[in-house]
Amino acid sequence: MTKLEGVLPAIRNMKDFEKVLVSNHENIIFLETRLSQIKSLVKHAHDHHKNVFLHVDLVQGLKVDEYGLEYLVNDIHVDGIVTTKANVITMAKKHNITGIQRLFALDSHALDHNLKICKRVRPDYIEVLPGVIPSILKEIHEETEIPVIAGGLIRTEEDVNRALDGNAIAVTTSNRKLWEF
């Protein structure tokens, strides 16, 4: 399992990708892309010694089933995946890649439901959105004993610090200004 910590750049476009390639970040997350772009993007990132995590739910043209994940692992060589789907985390574990379960903390009912799923599936990491509520980050970590990543609505250095103080081991953000924090 790849160790994740600190600020993790979340890539939305080619300008972001070009910027992160020359950064000191070891790990990057592709949020939105097309199936036809993935192979060259991952190869280019690997050539620059970056670990690539792909938010598989947001890849246009990819069906995230056993065969789709097999393609990402064997042909594309992604280092890990991000998904909201428990069955995809299970498949990622089967293929020995890092699985990040994205969890939306919308209300108490959604949180309880998602915690049950995470306890059953045991992803490598849980990404919590929005990631600006330290008490919820801490609760999720204590309840599951799974490392927590804060994501969503992280806008300032103060947001990053609060998330990390709330037991998050990392923060994902597409805000380029925070990548160097």
Textual characterization of the structure:
It comes from Bacillus yapensis. InterPro entries: Aldolase_TIM (IPR013785), GlpP (IPR006699). This is Glycerol uptake operon antiterminator regulatory protein. GO terms for molecular function: RNA binding; transcription antitermination factor activity, RNA binding. Keywords: Glycerol metabolism, RNA-binding, Transcription, Transcription regulation. By secondary structure, this protein is α/β, with parallel strands linked by helices. It has one domain (6-179): TIM Barrel. Helix content is 44%, strand content 25%. The strands form two sheets. An eight-stranded parallel beta barrel has the order 1-2-4-6-7-8-9-10, surrounded by six helices. Strand 1 (6-11), helix 1 (14-21) and strand 2 (27-30) form a beta-alpha-beta unit. The longest helix is centred in the middle third of the chain and has 14 residues, at 108-121. It is globular and about 40 Å long. The model has no long low-confidence stretch (mean pLDDT 97).
